[in-house]
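Risk mitigation, structural track. In case the binding assays with WQD fail to produce interpretable data, a predicted complex structure has been prepared as a fallback.
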Amino acid sequence: MQKILVTGGCGFIGSHTIVDLLNNGYDVISIDDNSRSSNFSIAGIEQITGKKIKNYKVDLKNFDETQAVFQENTDIAGVIHFAAYKAVGESVGAPLLYFENNLFSLINLLKCVEEFSVPNFVFSSSCTVYGNPDAIPVTELSPIKQAESPYGATKQMGEEMLQAFTKNGKCNVILLRYFNPVGAHPTAILGELPIGRPQNLVPAITQTAIGKLPKMKVFGNDYPTRDGSCVRDYIHVCDIAHAHTLAIQYLEQGKNESHCDVFNLGTGLGVTVLEAIKTFEEQSGVSLNYEIAERRPGDVIAIYANNDAAVNKLGWKIEYDLKDMMRTAWAWELKIKAQEEAAINN
Ligand code: WQD
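Fallback model:
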């Protein structure tokens, strides 16, 4: 059974990916320092899959501790690297925090990949690397634009580091550029656990709908789009997760066309903020309390994916539509509330 190391395995996409890997016959270990996640996810993974996994509570910026994990697991057949800070707004206010964490972690990890001859590496990248695209949908060959934030810059630099690292051919890499990952596992045992006030649209919607937030803001309705609000490509977290399993299999089967192949992970459908809200209201039966507010600095007007490469080369099939995304996100929010109430009553 091939062993895969998932960094950031307690996080939103990491935990869902571990479930998919386990369900596809892989052995998995995780490295997560839980600075922005909780071991609660590990219990959720075990509840869904019935399989135990070990999380090493290690900060990847600590080389010795990271190296020790590889020394204890010399049979790692592949690494999937999620562990990174990812709040666009926060990164603008704290660029050095983002460059230090996201880049030092990657460098330490690659030193271990090289030292222990790990053959395959999948990197969590983002559509952010495209900036404000000149043409949509974007393909993997669309120009990489000036990053809109230090967060986006760390994804661009990470990709460049990996391109250079694989030049020696010692390791094969896949860059997965996510569009907007949303939703939750259909069992409602795993989902997104934003820390503090949610920055992203869907958790802001569900927390407003459940009453955790009094009202939410739609950041601008005067954009040159069909209803004035920004366009994004929302993609279910379980579809994103399965793409990682397919990426590992693609590398194991030697199907890669270069030492560093790139794939967009989006549905290929552009959805406006107001359309997303409307779909949520239809799926939840809740009328959302929101107001139109000023544009948010750094927001891209419109972006969505051309996903032909992932569909045709990885064999990726999208299973969840926007209704599923909103329905599962809402079921997860209801589950969190029920657990919080049970904790208070016990
Ligand atoms: C989506 C749309 C907002 C909140 C970022 C990163 C990307 C990925 C996902 C990590 C925008 C609008 C949002 C709210 C709103 N990060 N919005 N009210 O900015 O497209 O992407 O997060 O994986 O790499 O760049 O996602 O969900 O923050 O915003 O109107 O309360 O929703 O203005 O138009 P974004 P988002």
